[in-house]
Records
---
Amino acid sequence: LRWGDFEGAEMPWSSFQEADLTGTNLSHTNLSASNLRDANLLDAVLQKANLKNARLQGANLTHVDLQRADLTSASLQDANLTGADLQKAKLSSANLSGANLSGVDLHGVDLRGADLRGVKSITVKQLATAVVDMRTRLPEGITFKQIQKQKAGEM
């Protein structure tokens, strides 16, 4: 499956657990409720993909392009998203606890109601570019007040 092209494919409820999907094109693909636990998606393209309720626990999402992808209610616990592009992605009510978000672009990302507790390598500056609300569970040491100050340019 490495470097494959599945653009626009309909694959809801599929299982790709522990699959090697390195560099695969999954743009506009329907992977809703799919099992991608511990999958290797290094350098994959998932622009505008439907990943609602997908299970991505422990997945390697390093340098993945998830622009405008829908990850509403997805499970991303302990996933590695280092350097991923999540611009304008929907992660409302997603569980990102323990995930690594080092260098992730969160510009316009919907994190309303998302669980960010225990997230590794996330900054106030990153969160200030995202959409959060009072239901968002922030990582320890980051407060809504800090995010608001960053957005206002006070930090």
Note: The radius of gyration is 15 Å.
---
Amino acid sequence: NHKENVLKAFNLLYDKVNACIFNFQGLSRQELEKQILAHDDSKRTKEEYEFYADYFFGERTESVKEKFKIASDVHKSRNPHHPEYWEKSGVISMPDRYLFEMLCDWWSFYLASGKPEDIFDWYKKEGKKFVFCKENQDKIDKTFNTIKEICNTKE
């Protein structure tokens, strides 16, 4: 379950990054956890659900791929944990609470695969397509260093 893996990433990272990397502006752990528990809830809406289900659990015809792309764009435009939500002005500047959720989201796929360290290869190829402001990029880099430490202690 994707949401469970996002929560797992949150739990692995929160204590290591709170205050030293991110400024959650007075939000408690419980408030951030509530945000994580609501992660991707928009995928249950009629504009997204059917197209995500068809794409991930059905036959990927050209029509299914096209409809999924539209649903995915809608999803990214209404969920602030996606860089595309903030990208309108070119350089992406995300509030810490959403930047942290984005990183938990990204890492969740690799936690689910059993190869949490594979996020680094993915980020070298895919993550660099986003242009984050310096402050966001520094926080991403520091969080990736924290992920690296977590992966190294599990070996």
Note: Residues 17 and 70 are 34 Å apart (CA to CA).
---
Amino acid sequence: DGCHCVVHLVGIIKSSENNSYEQAHELPCEALVAAAQKAGINHIVALSIIGSGAQSTNDCFASRGRAEEILLAGDVPVTILRVPMVLGENDFASRALHKKASSNVAFTFRHLSLEQPIYAGDVMHLFVGRCSILVATAAACVRFLGILDNRLYRP
């Protein structure tokens, strides 16, 4: 009754012995789809990354692609927002980039990559906005259908 939209922000950019891409991307999506269907959620908005695709030769991108497919195969409508690398205050990637940028030696970060990082706060605003639009649209549709229903079936 109170939750209409779920925001899914789970993901890693580096796997480890204790945290595989499957554990971080695919398994949470399976659990989310089952829980959302059971709870009657109206929409899922999920974060993904530019370059994702189940057929990718990059293990991270391939796992993200499989995770997207899991979400899209469920009964709950899904919006997948693919963004470039997300950087936040004092996170691992931000600290690593700051350290390299502060050194006396020039570096390139995936020099063939054309995407620019995006700030985590901007991503959050995007997700909150998307959910607000979905909830407002659903509420407007319910109100409109209620008006039609009252006009058509008035006793």
Note: The first strand starts at residue 5 and ends at 8.
---
Amino acid sequence: SANSTVRLTLITPDNITLFENQSASDVGKVCFKQYGNYRLTVIARDGNGQTDRNVYTYTVEDVEPPVLTLEKTENIKAEQNTTVTLYNATAKDNHSACTIRVVVYAPNGAVFTLENKAEIKDVQLQLTMVGEYKIRYFAIDENENISSAYYTIEVA
């Protein structure tokens, strides 16, 4: 009826009220730019004073992986029983902090993690075996989005 109303309240993921008890016709468009849960409360009242209240949750998720940058990506040739410095790496995310993990796949099948930091710089690797070492970098953000890069070290 003409006396019916719909009122809206919207609260952001960090508990800031964008609008409170506003007429639906006054709100217009809303763009959810922040990651997390938005709470929309809708209160409808008919001409007889009957009220219906509903709360809706809208979740905005971060699904974008971090950008992983290695100083180089060329494969390396080296001699057995030498030490090499792995390529430095940084990672940047659109939303949260991220961690870089360097995983080494040795020629004998062994797998080990060298570093698990926000930045990889001047990491040394002792080359004790002949064969191919696969060096893989993983950048992981707080929402477990992953990007990766790799290169090999061929040891003669």
Note: The longest strand covers residues 131-141.
